[in-house]
Design brief:
The protein is α+β, with helices and mostly antiparallel strands and 173 residues long. The chain has a single domain (3-154), classed as NADH Oxidase (3-Layer(aba) Sandwich), CATH 3.40.109. The protein is 34% helix and 17% strand. The chain is built from 5 helices and 4 strands, in the order H-H-E-H-E-H-E-H-E. It has a 4-stranded antiparallel beta sheet with strand order 1-2-4-3, sandwiched between helices. Helix 2 packs across helix 4. The radius of gyration is 17 Å and the shape is globular. The N and C termini lie far apart (35 Å).
Length: 173
């Protein structure tokens, strides 16, 4: 699958089969996540991989109703920012770096035939705190988002054209 096809056909997948995801495949997904750019190459992300069913359910509980897909996922990945590695003069870039890593992970999953859905955590501080407590994270590690992963149960719906010309401006507003 070429890059444009991958980007244009990726969908948020919320229902999965019970097929597990191999260690090798998880390694590929995490490699893709870590291959994105980060502010001054700080690489200020960390990832917590969960496959245990009970822990996936607790992650879903901690993030609230939108995180229900974790209950049927083969794996969940908590994307975190590492404030000790963040660019000292603008630590807030960790949020952008985490988003880039999460998108790379989702695109790689799609290319490998795995469904994914991005589930927001930060900046909803109640969710951040519950994930932090669940995993006993050190203070400098900040939960950013969750990615539910699994082989899709069914075919995601295709979508039509998404390009919106009225949102594009050339040379000036």
């Amino acid at each position: 699958m070429d890059a444009m096809e991958n980007i244009l056909t990726r969908r948020s997948v919320r229902r999965y089969t019970d097929r597990p995801i191999s260690e090798e495949t998880l390694h590929k997904l995490l490699t893709a996540a870590m291959s994105g750019p980060s502010c001054v190459n700080a690489r200020d992300w960390s990832f917590l991989v969960v496959r245990d069913r009970e822990t996936l359910n607790r992650m879903a509980d901690a993030n609230g109703r939108p995180a229900e897909p974790l209950r049927g996922a083969a794996a969940g990945i908590l994307v975190c920012g590492d404030l000790e590695r963040a660019f000292p003069r603008a630590k807030e870039y960790w949020v952008v770096d985490g988003a880039i890593a999460a998108e790379n992970l989702c695109l790689a999953a799609h290319a490998l035939g795995i469904g994914s859905v991005w589930l927001g955590t930060w900046p909803q501080m109640d969710r951040v705190q519950r994930q932090r407590e669940l995993f006993q994270l050190p203070e400098h590690i900040v939960p950013h988002s969750l990615i539910a992963l699994g082989y899709p149960a069914g075919e995601p719906e295709a979508r039509g054209e998404i390009y919106e010309a009225d949102r594009v401006h050339f040379e000036r507003w």
